[in-house]
From TrEMBL:
GO terms for MF: metal ion binding; metalloendopeptidase activity
Organism per entry: Rhodnius prolixus
InterPro entries assigned: Peptidase_M8
Cofactor(s) recorded in Swiss-Prot or TrEMBL: Zn(2+)
Pfam annotation, one family: Peptidase_M8
GO process terms (BP): cell adhesion; proteolysis
Keywords from the named record: Hydrolase, Metal-binding, Metalloprotease, Protease, Zinc
Cofactor note: Binds 1 zinc ion per subunit.
Protein's name in the database: Leishmanolysin-like peptidase
């Protein structure tokens, strides 16, 4: 997306190279500010022991089991683009004092995949792949991203009215009398929702679960496709979901 935007800007400014140079300098300054803010905020969170999110930044290294998150607007299941490099990053790109599940002293080898962002890791949408072949995307509002029935352990449902909801740390599982299967990734999933009577209602496999307060854990045990699906959802703040829901309903009514 960044390259596409730069290409558009270049077509506009190519007759005035000074304006083009100024645009590039402005972007560089923006990324430098972003990097500084990330370092300061990350260190503050850890030094003061604050229990708060560092989104849209992140500090989760891709590992097994794969742990997904939600984008800031909850439009997509997402991954942290923090990776390990073979060589230690230059000191001014070393953004961490500590990283979960990374040995002390190895932090300098880790950074985001985007060098233009000063290696600051952030949460981003991704594509599920099998043997390097794209299977589906992670944007919640596209029905074509629905997982195959046999692989839908967390009973997700992608569609126009769906948003990303966090799971608990415990992986979802499927059970029968003779077998237990546990999914190889967890962390978040896409589910439809409605906002009624001042509450957020999340819909899982046609069952409605009501969120009464933020971070409420809703345990799920539902029979689907001859398997008992067990897992849990973490309720987001009602206003985080329902403000956008109200705008969407209003827009639909205006069209009708």
């Amino acid at each position: 997306m960044l390259l596409i935007q730069l290409n558009k800007e270049y077509k506009i400014y190519k007759q005035d190279i000074t304006k083009w140079d100024n645009l590039i300098l402005e972007m560089i300054r923006s990324f430098q500010i972003l990097s500084s803010e990330f370092i300061l905020f990350h260190r503050t969170v850890y030094s003061e022991g604050k229990d708060q999110s560092i989104e849209p930044f992140c500090d989760k290294v891709k590992r097994d089991p794969l742990e997904t998150e939600c984008t800031d607007d909850r439009s997509s299941v997402a991954l942290c683009n923090l990776v390990e490099y073979t060589k230690k990053l230059p000191p001014h790109y070393q953004n961490f004092d500590r990283i979960p599940h990374v040995s002390e002293g190895r932090e300098g080898f880790y950074g985001g995949v985007v060098s233009l962002a000063d290696y600051c890791p952030y949460i981003q949408e991704f594509t599920w792949r099998s043997q390097n072949i794209a299977i589906r995307g992670s944007h919640c509002q596209y029905p074509e991203n629905n997982p195959h029935t046999d692989k839908n352990f967390a009973l997700e449902q992608y569609g126009p009215n769906s948003r990303c909801i966090d799971h608990t740390d415990r992986l979802w599982e499927e059970r029968t009398c003779k077998q237990v299967r546990q999914w190889l990734h967890g962390g978040s999933g896409c589910y439809p929702y409605v906002c009624e009577n001042g509450f957020l209602h999340i819909i899982v496999h046609n069952y409605t679960f009501t969120c009464l307060y933020p971070k409420q854990v809703i345990k799920i045990q539902l029979l689907a496709n001859k398997w008992l699906h067990k897992g849990a959802l973490v309720c987001p703040p009602c206003e985080e979901m329902c403000n956008s829901y109200a705008r969407r309903v209003k827009k639909k009514l205006e069209k009708d």
